[in-house]
């Protein structure tokens, strides 16, 4: 509840400022700041010592304490609603723009009557900000850039593109002498497709040293608040990050709580209440008595659950499954033996077949399948039948060479054949029949009506040579919607024809979505997890495809390339 109140008080301070209220805005801003970094939840403080205890919070006086009480009791603050009615300015929306703070919001409203992001964008584009004292042309440019960025990302970040920064920060925090343990939590630990912010937990006997180190990291662009055990910053990549030091005995409870997701947590807390416990981020309590909290395992166990991987914690039935010992044995991050979608410099990839093979082997794989584009995708230099067959001969030669060198690594012959508008394919059947693995995908006519699109892909699946449908929905996260297609119908056709559906590991693709993965599993349809590599650097993305598979409850048996290439080939049509 602290962060909700922090936001409300901040907004109130800006709104009061706009009305020309004296002194009070500063008090609300201070309270907002203080609640933002407060360790204990206000509800706890209130239930412990009532309004008097609230007043002991730094920056909280009698007036603000009353409003906290009002919010705890009614989830509502009258003054706040009143202010919002008087000045209908979207403070949250404006503040989210990089470089726009309370002062700017006030100026924008007073001078230009700007109330929301759309109005601000229009004004900035029309060059109206540059002449206002205190703003200027630089601010105008910055505002436009900030708005553009928010449009692209909706304030969310693609997991795979963000993870390297996250890991880097966490690894350096671990090395700080005073730090005993560091873990990231939240949507990042759950390996969600997109993530809002970075939540870090740590154990340390000298939290202040950890906070000092954290705010001094070069990735930090702005410090919102720095407390003794909690610090809240904006990173240079635009993402917010918070770091909290928690007592060792509470670490598991905190990790569990801040990993979420929220709906999983609510269910778990209800289970605790049903059994006569109280569960929060400090631990599991029986009355006043602390009964568990050091590890996640002990918290779950006390409540009758098996520990479960964070990817499962979405309130999709994982708690019920865990209570009855029916959790899936998820495919593991080290389980992939091959990658079935790899492009090379024969088309739009950056590296040669051999370079890709070497990089894949370094990544721990035993095989790859080369799947360059076909001629219809002219801009990639797509291959025609003749070139595909020549590439196959080249692969034979490289395989022979690898064998002579006593290398176990195997390169399979394949293609990413274009599915044409009517569902026919861009290569001849006799060519396809000579390849080890045929992937087919849609790269054009994204706007067909759903029925037509579905039929088109279904027709490709009916082709006895087509083994896999690559990136079956064609979405690109934050860039392009999926084409309209009935995935349930495709799953049924995949089942009937023995076609595999791909989980594309490329961080902004990740189709199939988790809900479709579950449906495919229920239908008995097999899937592959492929990187869609266009460079040797892309094999590392396989991790995000596995994460996606895990969030869809996939086991090793469901993923064909979690098996040796000989076994994998047997699983194809
Ligand atoms: P994000 O950052 O939007 O990608 O998603 P999360 O899941 O990381 O959410 P965040 O950062 O707001 O909060 C981190 C975790 O804290 C969340 O996964 C579960 C827990 N949490 C946050 N708010 C609530 C709440 O109102 N109730 C409960 N039970 N847990 C919450
Ligand atoms: Ca988060
Ligand atoms: Ca957060
Ligand atoms: Zn390509």
TrEMBL record:
Subcellular location, record wording: Cytoplasm
An annotated GO cellular component: cytosol
The EC number(s) this enzyme carries: 2.7.7.7, 4.2.99.18
GO MF annotations, alphabetized: class I DNA-(apurinic or apyrimidinic site) endonuclease activity; DNA binding; DNA-directed DNA polymerase activity; phosphoric ester hydrolase activity; zinc ion binding
Reactions listed under catalytic activity: a 5'-end 2'-deoxyribose-2'-deoxyribonucleotide-DNA = (2E,4S)-4-hydroxypenten-2-al-5-phosphate + a 5'-end 5'-phospho-2'-deoxyribonucleoside-DNA + H(+); DNA(n) + a 2'-deoxyribonucleoside 5'-triphosphate = DNA(n+1) + diphosphate; 2'-deoxyribonucleotide-(2'-deoxyribose 5'-phosphate)-2'-deoxyribonucleotide-DNA = a 3'-end 2'-deoxyribonucleotide-(2,3-dehydro-2,3-deoxyribose 5'-phosphate)-DNA + a 5'-end 5'-phospho-2'-deoxyribonucleoside-DNA + H(+)
Domain DNA-directed DNA polymerase X: 1-314
Positions of the Polymerase/histidinol phosphatase N-terminal domain: 338-421
Presence of keyword Ubl conjugation: yes
Needed cofactors: Mg(2+)
Keywords: DNA damage, DNA repair, DNA replication, DNA synthesis, DNA-directed DNA polymerase, Methylation, Nucleotidyltransferase, Sodium, Transferase, Ubl conjugation
Domain Helix-hairpin-helix DNA-binding motif class: start-end pairs: 52-71, 92-111, 127-146
InterPro entries to which the protein is assigned, alphabetical: DNA-dir_DNA_pol_X, DNA_pol_lamdba_lyase_dom_sf, DNA_Pol_thumb_sf, DNA_pol_X_beta-like, HHH_MUS81, Hlx-hairpin-Hlx_DNA-bd_motif, NT_sf, PHP_dom
Function statement: Repair polymerase that plays a key role in base-excision repair. During this process, the damaged base is excised by specific DNA glycosylases, the DNA backbone is nicked at the abasic site by an apurinic/apyrimidic (AP) endonuclease, and POLB removes 5'-deoxyribose-phosphate from the preincised AP site acting as a 5'-deoxyribose-phosphate lyase (5'-dRP lyase); through its DNA polymerase activity, it adds one nucleotide to the 3' end of the arising single-nucleotide gap.
Name listed for the protein in its UniProt record: DNA polymerase beta
């Amino acid at each position: 509840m602290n962060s909700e109140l922090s936001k409300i008080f901040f907004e109130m301070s800006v709104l009061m400022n706009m009305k020309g209220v004296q002194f009070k805005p500063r008090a609300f801003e201070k309270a907002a700041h203080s609640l933002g970094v407060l360790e204990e939840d206000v509800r706890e403080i209130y239930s412990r010592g009532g309004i008097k205890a609230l007043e002991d919070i730094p920056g909280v006086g009698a007036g603000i304490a009353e409003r906290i009480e009002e919010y705890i009791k009614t989830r509502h603050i009258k003054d706040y609603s009143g202010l919002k009615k008087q000045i209908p300015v979207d403070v949250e929306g404006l503040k989210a723009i990089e470089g726009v703070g309370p002062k700017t919001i006030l100026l924008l409203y007073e001078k230009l009557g700007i109330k929301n992001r759309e109005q601000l964008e229009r004004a900035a584009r029309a060059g109206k900000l540059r002449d206002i004292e205190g703003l200027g042309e630089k601010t105008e440019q910055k505002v436009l850039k900030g708005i553009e960025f928010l449009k692209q990302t909706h304030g969310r970040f693609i997991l795979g593109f963000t993870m390297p920064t996250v890991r880097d920060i966490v690894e350096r925090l671990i090395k700080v002498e005073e730090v005993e343990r560091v873990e990231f939590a939240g949507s990042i630990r759950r390996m969600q497709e997109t993530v809002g912010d970075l939540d870090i937990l740590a154990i340390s006997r000298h939290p202040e040293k950890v906070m000092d180190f954290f705010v001094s990291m070069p990735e930090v662009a702005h410090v919102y608040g720095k407390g003794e055990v909690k610090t809240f910053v904006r990173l240079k990549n635009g993402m917010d990050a918070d770091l909290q030091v928690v007592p060792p005995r509470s670490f598991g409870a905190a990790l569990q709580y801040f990993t979420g997701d929220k709906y999983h947590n609510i269910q778990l807390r209800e289970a605790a209440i049903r059994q006569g416990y109280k569960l929060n981020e400090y631990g599991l309590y029986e009355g006043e008595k602390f009964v568990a909290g050091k590890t996640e395992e002990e918290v779950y166990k006390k409540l009758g659950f098996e520990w479960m991987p964070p990817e499962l914690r979405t309130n999709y039935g994982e708690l019920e499954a865990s209570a009855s010992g029916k959790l899936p044995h998820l495919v593991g991050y080290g389980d992939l033996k091959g990658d079935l979608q790899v492009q090379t410099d024969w088309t739009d990839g950056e590296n040669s077949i051999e370079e890709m093979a070497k990089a894949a082997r370094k990544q721990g794989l035993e095989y790859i399948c080369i799947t360059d584009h076909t001629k219809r995708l002219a801009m990639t230099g797509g291959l025609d039948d003749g070139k595909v067959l020549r590439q196959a001969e080249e692969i034979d030669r490289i395989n022979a060479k690898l064998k002579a060198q006593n290398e176990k690594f195997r390169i399979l012959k394949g293609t990413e054949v274009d599915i044409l508008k009517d569902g026919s394919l861009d290569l001849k059947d006799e060519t396809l029949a000579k390849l080890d693995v045929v992937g087919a995908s849609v790269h054009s006519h994204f706007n067909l009506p759903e029925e037509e699109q579905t039929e088109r892909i279904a027709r490709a699946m009916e082709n006895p040579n087509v083994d896999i449908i690559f990136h079956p929905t064609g979405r690109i996260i934050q860039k392009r919607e999926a084409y309209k297609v009935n995935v349930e119908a495709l799953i049924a056709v995949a089942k009937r024809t023995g076609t595999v559906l791909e989980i594309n590991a490329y961080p902004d693709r990740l189709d199939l979505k988790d809900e479709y993965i579950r449906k495919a599993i229920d239908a008995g349809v097999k899937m592959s997890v492929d990187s869609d590599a266009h460079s040797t650097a892309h094999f590392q993305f396989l991790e995000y495809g596995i994460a996606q598979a895990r969030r869809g409850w996939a086991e090793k048996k469901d993923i064909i390339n979690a098996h040796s290439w000989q076994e994998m080939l047997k699983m194809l049509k």
